[in-house]
From TrEMBL:
GO terms for cellular component: plasma membrane. It is a multi-pass membrane protein. It comes from Thermotalea metallivorans. This is Probable multidrug resistance protein NorM. It is found in: Cell membrane. It comes from the Bacteria. GO terms for biological process: monoatomic ion transport. CDD domains: MATE_NorM_like (cd13137).
Length: 459
């Protein structure tokens, strides 16, 4: 049957599906932010060295997260396409091979990090007590990395199938466990030993274990998509399928790693202008997250629904979903833009009572408000490109913007034109505007709707 003869859902049904997917993602992000805030607050009560030790260690674990987020994206794309084509055999095979390969790879990485933790921490020139606590935290938290990889894969394939409620529930369970165990072990409550930074690491790893077990149960219980497949045959690797998944996902991994490296370099640059500048920057980022959380949901929705339309070989359905996703993104972003632009001092005042930080942070929020809509629409377009299998395009957009615009202009404007931290923020706005234009160009050039069959089948 040709695409034109297919029955499409009405606009109301399309919107219901879109927002039914986006709302759980937003709630999941809020849960993650809240748990992170509480964990940081607890660690902060044990001293500045503990906070710094966790921060250094997380730079290493973020890179591992970025790698397996990329692998999970490859699984998301193929799962969405198989789900859209109603090819349940291929869907199960994609999940199987993504899980198997991820578990094997992450175990190798975890062992490397555990036995060479001192080598990785010394990248940051840490010494004395900071070095010792960072190594201790990284060694303990490394045992949670295999479970982190499993959770990312489970969430990725479920989102590809349009199920975002289950990852949200898993995140809720994981964050509750993390906060409770961390509280007991950091401070030594209810008879538990007082472990300080080590307690925070145990809480994180244990929460990841619980999250992974719940995720695996979701897939393999009798009503799950992988029901009945957990036997000896499950552990057979298929090189071709794994290669396809990793080729699809690695550009997303590199895209995330680009961000991590850029963040480190910009943080070091901003520190040149003093603690107030860094505080305004960090709090500004936290305030801006109010706008960015819905954008993440719209981007994931674009990946899932475009991928499903491609699997179903239905270009008109893909276009209808994208039209509503872009409209929704612009409407919701306009609300947050209004808050950031017209009430920046009130927003900053919620986060701090330091007048100098508020005054500087207001400038950040007003600059970022100008480019929020371009930034979030670009995220949707890049999500659609991923769903169509063009995962290299968002990587090119991010890499070009970060390395050719954001970083060089940040150094030039802040140091050579004496704009100081304001120069860094101006460079960020230039980068976001540039990436919006580049994303639009690539989206139009790829013309994803002419490829209404899975990426791996293209000549």
């Amino acid at each position: 049957m040709i695409a034109e003869e297919k029955r499409h859902p009405c606009k109301q049904e399309i919107r219901r599906k879109i927002y039914g997917m986006i709302l759980p993602i937003c709630l999941e992000n809020i849960l993650q932010m809240l748990a992170g805030f509480l964990s940081t607050a607890m660690i902060g009560r044990t001293g500045a060295v503990a906070v710094a030790a966790v921060g250094l260690s997380m730079r290493i674990t973020y890179i591992v997260w970025a790698l397996f987020k990329g692998v999970a994206t490859g699984g998301t794309v193929f799962a969405a396409q198989a789900f859209g084509a109603q090819d349940h055999k291929k869907l199960r095979n994609v999940i199987q091979q993504t899980l198997l390969s991820s578990i094997l790879l992450v175990i190798v990485i975890q062992q490397g990090i555990y036995w060479k933790a001192d080598f990785f921490i010394q990248w940051f020139h840490a010494e004395g007590e900071l070095l010792a606590q960072s190594i201790l935290y990284l060694k303990i938290v490394s045992w949670g990395l295999p479970f982190l990889a499993i959770m990312l894969v489970v969430a990725g394939v479920l989102q590809g199938m349009g199920n975002t409620k289950t990852p949200m529930k898993i995140a809720l369970i994981m964050n509750v466990v993390n906060v409770m165990v961390s509280y007991l072990l950091i401070f030594g409550k209810l008879g538990f030993p007082k472990l300080g930074v080590a307690g925070a690491a145990v809480g994180t790893a244990l929460a990841q274990l619980v999250g992974a077990l719940v995720g695996l149960y979701t897939l393999f219980h009798r009503d799950g998509v992988m029901a009945g497949l957990l036997g000896p045959s499950f552990f057979k690797f298929q090189g071709k399928r794994i290669k396809d998944i990793y080729q699809m996902g690695m550009p997303t991994a590199f895209e995330s790693i680009f961000w991590q490296i850029c963040t480190i370099l910009l943080t070091r640059l901003i520190l040149k202008f003093g603690v107030t500048s860094l505080a305004a920057h960090q709090l500004g980022l936290q305030a801006e997250a109010i706008s960015y959380m819905p954008a993440v949901g719209f981007s994931v929705a674009a990946t899932a629904f475009v991928g499903q339309a491609i699997g179903a070989r239905d270009p008109d359905l893909g276009k209808k979903y994208m039209e509503e996703i872009i409209k929704g993104s612009i409407v919701l972003t306009s609300i947050s833009v209004s808050i950031l632009f017209f009430f920046p001092s009130q927003v900053m005042g919620i986060l701090t009572n330091q007048a100098d930080v508020i005054a500087l942070g207001v400038k950040y929020l007003m600059l970022m408000a100008i480019v929020q809509i371009p930034q979030n629409v670009a995220g949707v377009l890049n999500g659609a490109l991923r769903g169509a299998g063009f995962t290299k395009a968002p990587m090119i957009v991010a890499g070009t913007g970060l390395w050719l615009v954001r970083l060089p202009f940040a150094y030039i404007l802040s140091l050579y034109f004496d704009f100081h931290v304001l120069g860094v923020w101006l460079a960020m706005t230039l980068d976001l505007a540039f990436r919006f234009v580049l994303s639009c160009i690539l989206y139009r050039r790829k013309n994803i709707y002419q490829y209404m069959y899975p990426q791996e089948e293209r000549a």
